[in-house]
Amino acid sequence: MLFAQFGYAQVNMGARIGMNLGMFDLKNSNITESYNISPSLSVLIKMDIDVPFSTVFSFRTGLGLVIKGSEVDHIPTIQHPDTIWSLLYRLNYLEVPLLLVARAETDFFGTFYFGVGPTLSLGVGGRMEMFSEHRTNHGQTQSSYGLVWGNKPAPEAHHGYDYFRRFDFGVGALFSYQLPRSGLAFTVNYNKGLRNISPNPGIDLKTSYFGFSIGFIMGGA
Fold first, then answer.
1. Considering the entire predicted model, what is its pTM?
2. What distances in angstroms separate CA 180 from CA 56, 60, 219, 221, one per listed residue?
């Protein structure tokens, strides 16, 4: 953690690493079949910059690599009783938070932080894994696809499952605890995407995730 003296207090910079549990909010009016959506566990890496502007409040931004994703499992129907398929998504985003953070410092119990504000994300890569099984002939297939980023919908002959808008925005919140007389900090955060990241007609897809991370702040409270 690097720090410098400005105004009210130190401008702190730190890094943390952890895990996030991603989830899709998906509505697809193009199909009548049912599906289950389950969370996907991934790694997150973040760098934070905390700029105090009073004894209590600060502005926190930074840059993080966040893998948003989920697993979508097809439920067999009367029309297609013998086919089971599953899609596993991992969408790599560079994320910039713009948070207002309140700080409560104690003498013996360390320092507590609570923050809320908008987040901006840019898609930089990712993969979609497709698994399918045919019960009649016991055949199984597995495929992996790179993601197609952009605002244009998939061609009519294409299923479009791997088409995504590159830019996403949402709202984030965090709670962090920093040990007394130590730079070690534990952070829990939540992010809810507000933009439909699917360019395809009839599909409404938004992301969300819970994250837990551990970081170290040299020279922290």
1. 0.84
2. 17, 21, 11, 6
